[in-house]
Description:
This protein is of the alpha/beta class.
Amino acid sequence: MSRIALTPAKIEVIAPNLKRRLSGVTATIVRLLPVQARSIGIVATGPGLPAHVPCIPLRSVIRMSGRACRVWHARRNTEMLFGLILRHVLRKRLKLVFTSASQRNHTRYTRLLISGMDAVVATSHKSASYLRRPARVIIHGIDTGTFHPPPDRRAHRRSLGLSESVTIGCFGRIRRQKGTDVFVDAMIEVLPRHAGVTALVMGRAAHKHGPFLQDLREKVARAGLRDRILFLPEVPVEEMPRWYQALDLLVAPQRWEGFGLTPLEAMACGVPVIATTVGAFDELVVEGETGLLISPGDTGQMRTAVDAAMASPATLQQWSAAARRHVEERFRIEDEATALNALYRELLDGG
């Protein structure tokens, strides 16, 4: 696999990705590091990363000279622990940073790990409120050059083998926590009232959630909607913009979420969003301007919100333009990269 190479002397920041399967953290690293690398010597380490991400093998990190000071930017407990081992056992000169997206009280173990960090970043103000130490709030951004509205949404759908008609999407891992069942239940009620509208469920169900997915498929079959509620497999991160561009409306039905990038990715593509009030969604979606906010787990609220959106194509069009503008003005990935790189510089300059 080809990699964008940096000599050890030019590596200033290491961002570990110690999980092989695709996750929100992995997606963050994949989209963010190439932008950060324009102005700082940053590399990732770990499995499952595409070739365009600057990366070095984990064994190279272990063998790397400990004389130079570097930043280790962890986003998981395992990565905080590994950073502490590198610093205190292997005597690497590291400044340790942790990004928290969690919106619940941390376990004693996690709090212990966080206490060993030199700096903590929260991805939303809500996440920061759950930390027991000061944190810098740096909200995620989106690459508006990659995520953008298509020239012709209907023609784009046709190129993907979809119906040209209005399309509603629910993207992400398939399990109860993500509210996929609420979306499917709402669509079973809504679609018969809106001729031609199609709903897409796209994502992966882990093995233990296989019965959950099978139950959803059976519900759809019993409702006679297998040709209008489609279950599509997970696609690589780099292919996701094409699928957002196919949508007229995204529903983010999560019962719980840490941050949740899907509303930003959708809005960058000019897609309005109906989202639950979990994660950072209420900091991302502007009620009545770029979409609507509803309570988690409430099928009735979701049904009413989607019905209203489908009944007013003019409102959808207004929300579409406002959604794209909102992301361009407040959630550019370049701003996220700049803020993180500034934090790294402060830590490195402090020795």
